[in-house]
């Protein structure tokens, strides 16, 4: 089992602070550092800095959406970071949603075809191949090729996936799946579909990475640990794709209550409608100690995850100092993890 860390959720971690923290993260035994994207700091910029301060720690985007840059641009960026980091990049991609697509002047349509073509182009560009791609959605024009020969042309790409069709496709065309907000039973279900997709494509399903996120907040007062987690969970309960998945997991009454509160009184009212009992059924850990964090991650390990990402949600300010305390506590107990 590989344990990773993400520093992104419900807080602004100052960019310089993240870079300074990078050697401690590596020393604590985490396998990778992940950074997500929406309207926060740019993932590739941050993980480039992290890669420059570390030697073995993998760096990844979880998740970089495909509307913010052309596939040729991302292929160039990926090849550059691969060379700079000595092949430590894991490129996590996703199709995002209508709102994020609109921020970048894009149209959210044909997500399966769109991500397939995008990945094909990124791989070719990052490998240093000549690219003259003419797809149903993306075209690259003529005679594009990197001006140098990449040292690490084989690029590891994982894709965000929840629904049946997308998760099958993940197994067909990528090195793994990134599962966000999945309870253990849903993780098992998604993992089965991903591996079936790999088999259908003639690939070895055991080589496909199953990555899941379990958010953690840690504070001696559990109510304080719950507070920030309640904010991020409220967002997912009113977001289209995630709220549908949560309903499918048997949480429709809870999701509907939060959405009704949101319509009636806005986000603050929705936050108040998310109960502790419901929170404790979701993939989050409001912990009072690092030992509790370790113990409560066990069901996700048992669900078949091969990489377990821990997005740390700070319970106190400054956020970067809270994250540092979590990283140091993790290091002290790292010998207990097989």
SSE map:
Elements: E1 2-6, H1 15-27, E2 32-35, H2 43-52, E3 58-65, H3 71-85, E4 89-94, H4 98-103, H5 111-126, E5 156-160, H6 164-173, E6 176-179, H7 184-200, E7 209-213, E8 215-218, H8 222-238, H9 240-273, H10 276-279, E9 284-287, H11 290-296, H12 298-302, E10 307-311, H13 319-332
Parallel strand pairs: 1-2, 1-10, 2-3, 3-4, 4-5, 5-6, 6-7, 7-10, 8-9
Task: Explain what you see.
- The chain is built from 13 helices and ten strands.
- It is an alpha/beta fold and 338 residues long.
- The chain has an eight-stranded parallel β-barrel, surrounded by five helices. It has a two-stranded parallel sheet with strand order 8-9.
- Helix 2 packs parallel to helix 3 (71-85), helix 6 (164-173) packs across helix 7 (184-200) and helix 8 (222-238) crosses helix 9 (240-273).
- Kindly name the structural category: alpha/beta
The level of helicity is 40-55%
- The assigned CATH architecture of the largest domain is Alpha-Beta Barrel
Largest sheet: 8 strands, parallel, barrel
Tell me the Rg in angstroms. Answer: 20 Å
Examine the coordinates and then state which fold CATH places here, giving the name of the CATH topology of the largest domain.
TIM Barrel
Overall geometry: globular
Number of domains: 2
Percentage of β-strand residues: 5-15%
**Overall pLDDT metric:** 95
Low-pLDDT segments, ≥5 res: none
* CATH class designation of the largest domain: Alpha Beta
Series of secondary-structure elements, N-terminal to C-terminal: EHEHEHEHHEHEHEEHHHEHHEH
Strand tally: 10
CATH superfamily of the largest domain: Luciferase-like domain
Number of helices: 13
Span of the ends, CA to CA: 7 Å
Spatial order of strands in the largest sheet: 1-2-3-4-5-6-7-10
């Amino acid at each position: 089992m590989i344990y990773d860390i993400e520093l992104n959720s419900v807080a602004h971690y100052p960019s310089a602070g993240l870079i300074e923290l990078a050697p401690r993260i590596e020393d604590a035994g985490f396998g990778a550092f992940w950074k997500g994207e929406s309207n926060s700091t740019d993932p590739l910029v941050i993980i480039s800095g992290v890669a420059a301060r570390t030697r073995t720690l993998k760096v990844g985007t979880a998740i970089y959406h495909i509307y913010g840059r052309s596939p040729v641009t991302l292929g160039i960026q990926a090849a550059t970071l691969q060379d700079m980091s000595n092949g430590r990049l894991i490129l996590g991609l996703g199709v995002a949603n209508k709102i994020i697509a609109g921020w970048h002047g894009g149209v959210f349509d044909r997500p399966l075809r769109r991500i397939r073509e995008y990945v094909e182009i990124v791989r070719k560009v990052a490998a240093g191949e000549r690219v003259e791609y003419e797809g149903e959605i993306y075209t690259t024009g003529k005679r594009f090729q990197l001006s140098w020969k990449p040292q690490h042309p084989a690029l590891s790409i994982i894709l965000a996936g929840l629904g049946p069709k997308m998760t099958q496709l993940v197994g067909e065309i990528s090195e793994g799946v990134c599962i966000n907000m999945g309870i253990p039973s849903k993780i098992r279900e998604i993992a089965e579909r991903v591996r079936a997709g790999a088999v259908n494509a003639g690939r070895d399903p055991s080589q496909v990475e199953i990555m899941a996120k379990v958010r953690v907040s840690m504070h001696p007062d559990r109510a304080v640990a719950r507070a920030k987690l309640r904010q991020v969970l409220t967002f997912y309960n009113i977001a289209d794709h995630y709220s549908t998945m949560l309903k499918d997991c048997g949480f429709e009454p809870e999701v509907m209550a939060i959405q009704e509160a949101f319509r009636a009184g806005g986000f603050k009212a929705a936050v108040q409608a998310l109960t502790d009992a419901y929170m404790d059924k979701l993939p989050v850990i409001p912990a009072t100690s690092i030992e509790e964090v370790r113990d409560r991650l066990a069901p996700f390990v048992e669900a078949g995850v091969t990489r377990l990402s821990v997005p740390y949600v700070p319970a106190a300010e400054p956020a970067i100092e809270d994250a540092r305390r979590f990283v140091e506590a993790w290091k002290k107990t790292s010998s207990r993890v097989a």
